[in-house]
Amino acid sequence: MPGRINARTKLLDAAARLFYANGISATGIDAVVAEAGVAKMSLYNNFENKAGLVSAYLEARHEEWLELYRVRLAASQGAEAGVLAVVDAYIDHAEAGYEHGFRGCGLLNAAAELPAGEPGRQVVAGHKEQVEGIIRSHLEALTTQRQAAALAEQVSFLLEGAISRAGLEGNSELLHRAKAMIASMVRAL
After folding, report:
1. Who's near 128: CB < 8 A, 6+ residues apart?
2. pLDDT of residue 4
3. What are phi and psi of 170, to 5 degrees?
4. What is the pLDDT of residue 99?
5. Separation between Cα atoms, residue 129 and residue 167, nearest integer Å
6. pLDDT value of residue 133
7. pLDDT given for residue 98 in this prediction
8. Backbone dihedral region of 23: left (phi > 0), alpha (psi from -120 to 50 degrees) or beta?
9. I want to staple 143 with a disulfide (CB 3.0 to 4.6 A). Which of 42, 59, 94, 147 is the partner?
10. Mean pLDDT in consecutive groups of 10 residues from the start of the chain, 189 residues
């Protein structure tokens, strides 16, 4: 049937809303199933357990950010604009209009709840490493690999700090300020 949303998608969408708004630990399986409007067995037909759902949520969140970045990158030209496309993707994320307001990076929020060694923490670390790598690749068009790597690390740290603080304040203002700082750093090359 065209237009019909499958149970897996409904469960992931519900988990995304609830995990972001309330946290992973505070959100039980029953709440996700109720929010999704599916039978509880649908959860276990699609995910081994809650940990499987959390992993799928983190992967989906990563892909969601990559898509925001791809859209921004497609509208940009040049290496400096490529770096700023990364920042703009974070701003788009912050301005997405979440039901209970912006709470910062959903991946970092999730990682803070997961115990050390939990596979989900590796998903988050991989995302953050990929973002820094994207920044570095744009900077390599402007300077040496060594300088690009050092500046990419600085930009990444500035961006992560800005999104954390923006989440505490519930708006994107600090991300806009970080973008201006990052643009100055890149122009200084």
Report:
1. 107, 156, 160
2. 62
3. 80, 20
4. 84
5. 20
6. 98
7. 86
8. left
9. 147
10. 77 96 96 96 94 96 97 97 98 90 94 94 96 98 98 98 95 97 97
Are 179 and 95 a contacting pair, CB within 8 Å? no
Total-model pTM? 0.92
Query: Under 8 Å CB-to-CB from 136, ≥6 apart: which residues?
Result: 148, 149, 152
Identity of the residue numbered 97: G
For the range 91-100, what are the long-range contacts, defined as Cβ-Cβ under 8 Å and sequence gap of 24 or more? 91/172, 91/175, 91/176, 91/179, 92/68, 93/64, 93/65, 93/68, 93/163, 94/163, 94/166, 94/167, 94/171, 94/172, 94/175, 95/172, 98/20, 98/21, 99/17, 99/21, 100/20, 100/21
pLDDT at 70: 98
Q: How far apart are CA 48 and CA 63, in angstroms?
A: 21
Query: Look-up: residue for tokens 């030209």?
Result: 77
